[in-house]
Specification:
The protein is α/β, with parallel strands linked by helices. The protein contains 11 helices and 11 strands. The protein starts with 6 loop residues before the first strand and ends with a helix. Bound molecules: NADP nicotinamide-adenine-dinucleotide phosphate (NAP).
Length: about 300
């Protein structure tokens, strides 16, 4: 990220991406205002890291801190891959993203000097299940629950433009990390040689190394940056689930021949099963055109980096 020191407000700072982002921003000399819902047992603040708490769905003191920031990064949201998608759960998934985004936009609109840039997470789920179709940021949204959620989430975020704020919505694919997410859930079975693809092997499975999740955010929020509107946050190499499973097996030195069939996937994961592996061939067109250099553009290199 650029050498100019910035004050950056980060929600979801305890999460998979947020925790790595905060570490990286602090290491880069920036001042981080890290938000979590509950301060709990005194997280360690430091000279460049201040922890804040409060309910993002309601007005509160956290909004005063946000008014001082040069950039706002909104990553908080109830985990999509946990629990069954009951009506109550769907309401939580929506409210934790959309109502919180609306509160952030409200804070930006009333700030005397609003942040220059608001980066809001979104997801590749925006596109729904699309088979072989090549998708970029100009492609229309899908028509399932996750797609509708992403459409509403991004629309709420784009409201900050009225306050003169540059807004970028990063549509993340599955973020690969050893510490959580899709890869971490698959690892135990693969390590025992029992792994395999999740559902039909011909479906594209958009992915991104965690270092590029952080890298894309830092690139998008840099002062004078050109990232604006939707940005696909997926690696350039599009890989089908079957290739994906074989590649993971290869990197681990284990076979990957036992597929989890779609029915078992649904029984195990409920409605979210297909949503986790929907089949999307997504290109990171905006990031590549605007010059972002992926650290891990290819799956084998990304998995080797994470697992060896
Ligand atoms: N990881 C992926 O593969 C992936 C893929 C596509 C999109 N995304 C999106 O990118 C964002 C960041 O992803 P992540 O993997 O870092 O997420 P994460 O690890 O699940 O962390 C999100 C943070 O949100 C907060 N949170 C949890 N439940 C909440 C609730 N009910 N209401 C409000 N806040 C809640 C938690 O922070 P506190 O409880 O400490 O406040 C948590 O640390 C998320 O919005 C996610 O949907 C991620």
């Amino acid at each position: 990220m650029s050498a100019a020191r910035q004050t950056i407000f980060v929600t979801g700072a305890t999460g998979l991406v947020g925790s790595r982002l905060c570490e990286s921003l602090v290491a880069g000399g920036h001042r981080v205002l890290a938000h979590r819902r509950d301060l709990g047992s005194e997280p360690a603040s430091g000279p460049n890291l201040t922890w804040l708490s409060g309910d993002l769905l309601r007005r509160g003191d956290w909004q005063d801190a946000l008014a001082d920031a040069d950039a706002v990064v909104h990553l908080a949201g109830a985990p999509v891959a946990e629990g069954r998608w009951t009506r109550a759960r769907k309401n939580e998934l929506r409210a934790s993203r959309i109502a919180s985004t609306e509160q952030i936009v409200f804070s930006l609109a009333r700030a005397a000097r609003p942040a220059a840039v608001f980066l809001c997470a979104s997801a590749s789920g925006y596109y729904g299940a699309r088979g072989e179709e090549r998708l970029d940021e100009r492609s229309p949204a899908g028509d399932d629950f996750l797609a509708a959620l992403c459409v509403e989430w991004e629309a709420a975020a784009l409201g900050a433009r009225e306050a003169g704020v540059r807004v970028a919505c990063l549509r993340f694919g599955a973020i690969l990390s050893r510490r959580g997410g899709a890869l971490a859930r698959m690892l135990p079975a693969f390590r025992l040689g029992l792994g395999g693809r999740l559902g039909p092997g011909d479906r594209y499975f958009p992915w991104l190394h965690e270092a590029d999740a952080v890298g894309l955010i830092e690139w998008a929020i840099q002062p004078g940056g050109s990232a604006e509107g939707a940005v696909n946050a997926v690696a350039p190499e599009a890989v089908r689930m079957g290739e994906w499973a074989r590649c993971l097996g290869r990197v681990l030195g284990r076979s990957a021949r036992l597929p989890l069939p779609g029915v078992a996937l649904r029984l195990a994961l409920g409605e979210r099963g297909p949503a986790l592996v929907p089949g999307q061939f997504i290109e990171p067109r905006a990031a590549l055109e605007m010059g972002y250099g992926f650290r891990h553009p290819r799956l084998e290199g990304a998995l080797s980096d994470l697992l060896r």
